[in-house]
Amino acid sequence: MARIVSLGSALQDIYMVDHDDLRPTAIGGEAIFGKVLVGAKVDIDKAYYSVGGGGVNSAITFARHEHEAVFIGNVANDPAGYAIVRVLDNEGIDSSYVNFLERKSTGTSVILLDSKSGERTILTCRGASEQFGNFDEKDLDLIKPDWMYVTTLRGDFDTLERFLIHAKELDVRVMFNPGVRELNDANRLTRLLKYVNVLLVNKSEASMIVPGVTLSEQIYHLGGYVETVIITDGAMGGIATNGTDTYRFGIYEDTKVKDATGAGDAFGSGFLASIADGVSFRKALIFASANSTSVVQKLGANKGALCKGGDLHPMPIQKI
User: Fold this and answer.
1) Could you tell me which CATH number the domain at 3-25+46-319 has?
2) Within 10 Å of residue 62's Cβ, how many Cβ atoms?
3) How far from 262 is each of 22, 57, 143, 201, 275, CA to CA, in Å?
4) Which residue of 48, 51, 59, 249 pairs with 6 in a disulfide if CB–CB is 3.0 to 4.6 A?
5) Do residues 4 and 144 lie in contact, with contact meaning Cβ atoms separated by under 8 Å?
6) Pairing mode, if any, of strands 107-114 and 120-125?
7) 105-119, 201-215, 231-245 — which is least confidently predicted?
């Protein structure tokens, strides 16, 4: 068992699920929810409330894997904020480092989901999860984590750098899954990768950091910055290296996607939950893929997160 702190956002997710009114329609090469008209009142089949955000999603996987999970994030003094803290407490996650911000609302996402196709559009008001400058890296002195898992801080490089440097000083290992705001400043991002032990990106995100068309080219270049790199490529699987072994892997299971929200968080946290247990690099990749597959089969960004100890079936994975 390890002590893992998750750094990132906390959101209330409100799902609006329908089987016909949100049917995607192609217009000008883009897909839109074509039957929702301006000024119309649309009857939705189901409303579902959940919690999400990269920091919360990853902490839930760590807790279900029986690690000591700690979450650092921002919410507001409102019903959504209290709901998020209640979920953290119910999952056995240390919520004592959650900050309650004044004059803010808790971040909220409204997810329009077509139940037939699984396609979705997400409307997000980030509220308290828009800013992270109030985070105090000295909290790591009290938490004493073995690992720190960092999701997007919305381009707040100052806070990101403070935490990465202090984690290095404390010999805390770091896994980082950057977001668009970090990726848009590739020069500043690459300067911070020397503090990162494990980097997770998808293929298009990797192309924003390094040159290369193929996964093999991208992982070669990223390997010059970070020892362990994982690049995912949707239904094509992905590629991963730990500096010694490199694996090309497919998907864990060809299944219908009910809700893709949280798939990336499930993969990254599933990988780290396994590595923190001391399992092999290969087995950690398999669990990561299984965790992501389980999450997309349920409504909600973390409802399907796997617990420790379940049986996993074989999947396509090959050492190269």
Assistant:
1) 3.40.1190.20
2) 29
3) 21, 7, 26, 14, 20
4) 59
5) no
6) antiparallel
7) 105-119
Count of all residues that appear for the chain in the document: 320
Q: How far is CA 151 from CA 95, 257, 265, 308, in A?
A: 17, 23, 8, 22
Could you tell me where the beta strands, DSSP code E, fall in the chain? 3-7, 11-18, 24-27, 30-33, 46-52, 68-76, 98-101, 107-114, 120-125, 147-150, 173-176, 198-202, 228-232, 238-241, 246-249, 317-319
pLDDT band at 290 (very low <50, low <70, confident <90, very high): very high
Q: pTM of the predicted model, to two decimals?
A: 0.94
Tell me, what DSSP letter sits at residue 306? P
Q: How far is CA 265 from CA 42, 119, 278, in A?
A: 31, 18, 20
Distance CA 94, CA 89 (A): 7
Report, in angstroms and rounded to the nearest whole number, the Rg of the chain calculated over CA atoms.
19
Mean pLDDT for 182-190 is: 97
Instruction: Write down the domain spans for the chain.
Output: 3-25+46-319
Determine phi and psi for 275, rounding to 5 degrees. -60, -40
DSSP β-ladder status, 107-114 and 46-52:
unpaired
Determine the pLDDT at residue 35: 64
CA distance 150 to 165: 13
CA dist 124 and 113 (Å) reads 14
- Residue 230's CB is within 10 A of a number of other CB atoms, namely 28
